Predict the structure.
Amino acid sequence: MIAGEKESWRNWSGTVACRPEIIQPASLEELARTVAECGRAGRHLRVAGAGHSFTPLVESDDVLLSLDHLQGLEKVDRERGTAVVLAGTRLGSLGELLLAHGLAQENLGDIDVQSIAGAISTGTHGTGLRFGSLSTQVVALTLITASGDLIECSEEENRDLFKAAQVSLGTLGVIARVTLRVVPARPLHYIGRRASLEDCLDNLERYREENEHFEFFWFPYTPWVQAKWINTTEEAVRQNSRWGRLWSNVNQLMLENGVFWLLSEANRLVPTLSATVSRISALGVASVDEIDYPHRIFATPRLVRFVEMEYSIAADQLRPVLEEIRACIEEQRFKVHFPVECRFVKGDDIWLSPAYGRDSAYVAVHMYKGMEYKPYFRHVEAIFRRYEGRPHWGKIHTRRPEELAALYPRWHDFRRLRAQLDPQGIFLNPYLRELFAVDEPLPTPTSQPEPASS
Ligand SMILES: Cc1cc2nc3c(=O)[nH]c(=O)nc-3n(C[C@H](O)[C@H](O)[C@H](O)COP(=O)(O)OP(=O)(O)OC[C@H]3O[C@@H](n4cnc5c(N)ncnc54)[C@H](O)[C@@H]3O)c2cc1C
């Protein structure tokens, strides 16, 4: 069955390209059969979601599985507040499917095109210190292992496997189905405006404690940020007419994406313009006052392509880290006009979650596609390193396995479980072999305490 043509595959940012044999199973049975066949034939396979990761996680020169035909809501249990979702389901359509049942995901990131399995596999997160990453919304998973077996795991069943699989970079098996904890869909009130960086930093604790979701984007070479405060409201949705929504979308496409793209192109052609472009972008920040359902409020179209690095640090370290990044950009005169994004995430107990055991601040730096990003990212990564930063798995970083082992108390437990589930390494590519030091011996297990903030 697996003997098709090779096709081109590229990730969203264009940083990863490969020529795999792409297979799109149409049922869970076909998916399990394909994985088992690959296992027997010693073939290597990776799974692609929406291809929005910047790192070579999805790269495959053999088989690439796409679960685009395995999308949809299988079951909703309103009493328990859970929804069973096929792994390939895109977050945007999931939002609409859940809304039809009066339900929603409690938090989301800033786009909604990812697949649910891809998003949880890298620890995708939104913002809000009361909310964990999307992986913490998962209450159970069905995993297809290298042998083609279906294993169910949850807090109650196969707990270690569950804690490892909640963020697993597609290395333990193929996630076929996800049971999510969902909440009643209540409208959110989103207030956004330009503010001063000083105000943001002086009021950081208050803003993040008093609001369900708070984040800000600092524009390099300026004293300005775009700040967003998002909270549940009893008021009715304000943009409920089709025309209202259409107008808001057109506005967002033109101002946030169209004009920003033109400015970005100008900056790519004349990089010395970056400080000016950053200033113009800051001045163009629109004031927003909207009420809508969660997935519509959290998600923004991101049409201007970029590369990104994002790290998680302890929540109370945001101010010094941001101040160091600001000084570094100004000293080195980096040609960057994309804002630095600052968000907050509640700590969790998921083995490879960057928020493991600590309430976290996430800081992300971006560079417009086609512009030199390596020196900028290298300098900023050195700052994150000094603050025991843990990289976002889907975003660019250069961390070595021995450093990751020191940052993640359950690192070797994860490696052990991976080796046990997939001894032949069918779910690995060269990037992942190196990341998990697959060819190096595993240390003897020691018992690990659970993190305090779980
Ligand atoms: C414009 C943009 C905005 C973004 N915004 C945010 C944000 O707000 N917050 C944030 O945290 N991140 C953000 N990201 C990063 C993004 O959410 C993650 O990289 C996410 O993993 C992408 O999901 P995907 O479906 O594209 O997965 P892919 O990138 O296709 O895959 C990611 C990983 O999941 C694995 N995988 C996919 N499906 C399965 C499966 N069924 N079983 C097992 N493994 C699987 C893949 O093998 C791979 O290891 C953003 C990225 C972009 C490009």
About this structure: The CA atoms of residues 108 and 410 lie 26 Å apart.
